[in-house]
UniProtKB/TrEMBL annotation:
Full protein name: Bile acid/Na+ symporter
Position of the signal peptide: none
Entry keyword set: Membrane, Transmembrane, Transmembrane helix
One Pfam family recorded for the sequence: SBF_like
InterPro entries tied to this protein: Na+/solute_symporter_sf, Put_Na-Bile_cotransptr
Species: Komagataeibacter europaeus NBRC 3261
Length: 318
């Protein structure tokens, strides 16, 4: 029975428990933020070193999969959020519904989308291109979508492209440049790449959940309202996962592309969401508005960790 327990999910649970009991704060926040940046950059460097140039070019030119993922992120999600709000207006109070609708307008995560695609043995090259493009477009599209969904004027929160370029694209390009010398080594040491994928996610989870705990995650809302937010977030994720699977099947995408659509199209970025919220909303409202996003972020990591491991196990013989 113990062998059936997902070890990565167990690590995630331990990480959340540790963040709840011993959250990082003060200098520790800076240390873990720097560690997360280093580990994520290292993950992208190793991905660049491992992927062939042909695979990267095919990933860049796969317009159908990019269109599918971006449509899930910036069209399907907002429509689904508004439909849930219309169907269940009394489920949450106004601030929590604002937070749910806001998370539906956000871009996809980058590091976890790619890491889970890699764990599930999907099309990593396409995931890198789509997830990165989602974050770049999200800088402009998220304020526009917020303006449409909430009927308000929203400006673009610029200045977010350079961190994406420096932290993600530069290491990946460096890995591609170094591939002739270390490509075979990276293929032989796939466990190192797997450790990099999972390790980066655990560090991000600890840092993000520590921030939520220090901001009073367990005290800012009554337990019943907090539980309802969790139910709405879990339901939203379940519907989106089912729809992304359906998109991959109806579009007759190959297995690797279907995996990338699931893990890139179902994610929402906490790293992008918090700074964007600070630009679009009043400082007094930001904390509660991003709470549904924080909860969704944890739920998507737990669920997708298990899903990725199972997909990867089924793909061992591919």
């Amino acid at each position: 029975m113990l062998r059936r327990i997902d070890s990565f999910l167990a690590c995630l649970l331990v990480t959340v428990a540790l963040a709840s009991v011993l959250p990082c704060h003060g200098v520790g926040v800076k240390v873990f933020n720097i560690l997360a940046i280093i580990m994520i950059a290292n993950m992208f460097f190793l991905q660049g070193a491992r992927l062939s140039r042909r695979a990267v070019m095919e990933g860049m030119l796969g317009w159908r999969i990019h269109l599918a993922i971006l449509s899930c992120t910036f069209v399907m999600f907002p429509l689904l959020g508004m439909a849930l709000h219309a169907a269940l207006p009394g489920m949450l109070d106004a601030s929590m519904w604002t937070g749910v609708l806001f998370l539906c307008c956000l871009p996809s995560t980058v590091q976890s989308s790619i890491a889970f695609t890699s764990i599930a043995r999907g099309n990593v090259a396409a995931a890198i291109c789509s997830a990165t493009l989602s974050n770049i477009l999200g800088i402009f599209l998220t304020p526009l979508l917020v303006g449409i969904v909430f009927g308000r004027h929203a400006g673009s929160g610029g200045g977010g492209i350079m961190p994406i370029v420096l932290q993600l694209l530069v290491p990946f390009i460096a890995g591609q440049v170094a591939q002739p010398w270390i490509g075979e080594w990276a293929h032989r040491h796939r466990k190192l790449l797997s450790f990099s994928d999972r390790g980066s996610i655990l560090v991000v989870v600890y840092t993000a959940f520590s921030e939520a705990v220090t901001q009073g995650l367990w005290h800012r809302l009554p337990p019943l309202q907090l539980g309802r937010v969790g139910v709405v977030d879990a339901g939203l994720l379940a519907i989106v996962l089912a729809l992304t699977l359906l998109v991959g099947q109806l579009g007759r995408f190959p297995r690797g592309d279907r995996i990338a659509i699931v893990f890139c199209g179902s994610k929402k970025s906490l790293a992008s969401g918090v700074p964007i919220a600070s630009v679009l909303f009043s400082p007094d409202d930001v904390g509660l508005i991003v709470l549904p996003l924080m909860i969704y972020h944890q739920v998507q990591l737990f669920v997708c960790a298990t899903l990725a491991r199972r997909m990867g196990a089924r793909g061992d013989g591919d």
